[in-house]
Amino acid sequence: MRKTVHKLIWGWDFDKEEAWLNEMAAKGLSLIAVGLFRYDFEETEPGEYQVAMELLEHGPNHPESQQYFKFLEETGVEHLGSVYRWAYYRRKTADGPFEVFSDKESRMKHLIRILWLVALIAGVNFYAGAYNLWIFYLWRNPISLLGLINLALCALCCWGIWKLWKKIKRLKDDGEIYE
Amino acid sequence: MAEAALTEAVYYILLSLTEPMHGYGIMQNAEALSGGRVRLAAGTLYGALSTLVTKGWIESVPDGGEGGRQKKYRITPSGREVLRGEFARLRELYENGARILGENK
């Protein structure tokens, strides 16, 4: 039996999203497909699967990504689907603890990749917001006030950047002592 | 050779690839060699393999047919040199530790 859940989670909280998906899997509801803010689960044995996510370097249909998914498959990882560049995977718990990254360098690289994406979105929204408000200032066209939404989104992304930065900083501080 | 230390992942990958091996084989080998301590996650391994290929420390082995669709890799002479250098560095760490802590047998 399938179960669908709609939920809005921000990209910088992907570790929380992962934790939630793993809680579901532990209860016997394993992720099977994804959509925009949409999660499809199937009933499995409790704890049969572990779930992980990754922001890919390229789009999911890019040949590089396809090759990567093939590689993952050889290691027992099932690619469940992607939303934009966010890929969702699962693997049987019997194969051992499942993570996409196992060392500081690769984790950090991944976090920085997410940071750049959020920064890009922040930048675009800032530009759109500022531009719209400028138009409003010139022409008093009320629709241009929608630029305020862009600015709000930009502020939200800045919050995300700050959270990501804290995660990166924590890894970095550890890195000065441990490999 | 006076470069920075290799990461554990890279050290075990290079060590594994003294024999041609595919990705999953490297993961299993690293885990076995380290007595279950070093588990290379697939994303980390994939990234490391492509970096090492770019550096010329490893190369992919031309497919021998026989249904082997999985890509195999092996260490190159320059990769072997790097591995030896790292081994010498680790031995220095080990020997100094053993001498100063007085645990040399």
Give structural notes.
The complex is a heterodimer of chains A (179) and B (105). Chain A has 179 residues and is α+β, with helices and mostly antiparallel strands. Chain A folds into two domains: 2-95, no CATH class; 104-175. Chain A is 50% helix and 21% strand. Chain A contains four helices and six strands. In chain A, strands 1-3-2 form a three-stranded antiparallel beta sheet, with helices on one face. In chain A, α3 runs antiparallel to α4. The longest helix of chain A is centred in the last third of the chain and has 36 residues, at 104-139. Chain A is globular and about 65 Å long. With 105 residues, chain B is mainly α. Chain B has a single domain (8-101), classed as Arc Repressor Mutant, subunit A (Orthogonal Bundle). Chain B contains four helices and three strands. Chain B has helices spanning 8-16, 23-33, 42-55, 77-101, and strands at 21-22, 58-61, 72-75. In chain B, strands 1-3-2 form a three-stranded antiparallel beta sheet. The chains are: A alpha+beta (179), B mainly alpha (105). The A-B interface holds A 54, 68, 71-72, 74-77, 96-103, 105-106, 109-110, 179 and B 5, 7-9, 22-24, 27, 39-48, 70-71.
Radius of gyration of chain B: 15 Å
Assign the CATH architecture of chain B. Answer: Orthogonal Bundle
| Total number of helices of chain A | 4
Q: In percent, how helical is the residue content of chain A?
A: 40-55%
Low confidence ranges of chain B: none
